Amino acid sequence: MSVEQKVLEINENFYQAFNRGDLNLMRSVWAQKDSIVCIHPGWEVIRGIDIIIQSWENIFAGSENLEIKLSDIKVTGDGGMVWVSCQENLFAMSMSGVQVSKVHATNLFEKIENHWKMVLHHASSVPQLSRQEQISTN
């Protein structure tokens, strides 16, 4: 299996953990060190495995009807560091129907003891453009 395939598999596990609300799978994806970083959209920087996992536990508790599907996935890097950039398409079920939002994410993976582990997740919301703004940017 190529480095790209291995990293994409770990990246997929990260999003499976999110979609299932699986804290054990989420913890297994991350490097177990204090220097790791997670930046959720609109949040302050979070550092360290325990605080990061607590943040996911809080998110999972409030997101029973939330699912992420990825698009525009790109893998870059070689050697001991590889990153995945992607668009997270979030679908939230509510009484008023399905709400869709988009987030750009960068996930950085480091090779640690022959295993690829996430050391950074940085996600930023994509502003929703009006139809007029979309036309003027084309």
UniProtKB/TrEMBL annotation:
Name the InterPro entries on file.
NTF2-like_dom_sf, SnoaL-like
Residues of the SnoaL-like domain: 7-126
Q: Which Pfam families match?
A: SnoaL_3
Q: What is the recorded name of this protein?
A: Alternative dihydrofolate reductase 3
